[in-house]
C-alpha cells in the first residue's frame, strides 16, 4: 500500500488553481469530470513528487455539503495491488464503507472507507 495523494475540496477551482500553480509552483498532471458534474485536478510538486488533488462540486452534487474553512479534506488516496480485496479486508476489520463501485454513484475499481473520524480513504490500483 502506498499513500499517493491528498484530495481537498475547493469552492472555486480556477482561483485555487491560480494559487497552487502560480503562487506555490505545483504542476498540473491531469484533470477530469465526475459523473455528477464535479471536476478534479491533480497537481504535483516537481521537487518532492507529492500530489494534491483539487475537487470542486457543483451545488446539485451529493458531495456539495456546506463548506467550512478547515474542513476541506475530501479524501486521502492510497494505491494498492487489489482495491477490492483491501476494501473487503477493512470492512471485515470493522471499517465503515463510504462508497464502492457497486453503489449507484460509485466509480469502477475505486473503493472508499471511512476512518474512525469519518474521513474518506480511497483505494485504487
Largest sheet: 8 strands, mixed
How does the helix and strand content classify structurally?
alpha+beta
For this structure, what is the CATH class of the largest domain? Answer: Alpha Beta
Unreliably modeled segments: none
Percent strand equals: 35-45%
How large is the count of helical segments? 2
- Based on the structure given, which CATH architecture of the largest domain is correct? Roll
Helix content: 10-25%
CATH superfamily of the largest domain: 2,3-Dihydroxybiphenyl 1,2-Dioxygenase, domain 1
Provide the gyration radius in Å.
15 Å
Q: Largest sheet, order of strands side by side?
A: 2-3-4-1-5-8-7-6
Oligomeric nature of the chains = single chain
What would you say about this model in short?
This protein is α+β, with helices and mostly antiparallel strands and 125 residues long. The protein has two domains: 1-74, 2,3-Dihydroxybiphenyl 1,2-Dioxygenase, domain 1 (Roll), CATH 3.10.180; 80-125, 2-Layer Sandwich (Signal recognition particle alu RNA binding heterodimer, srp9/1).
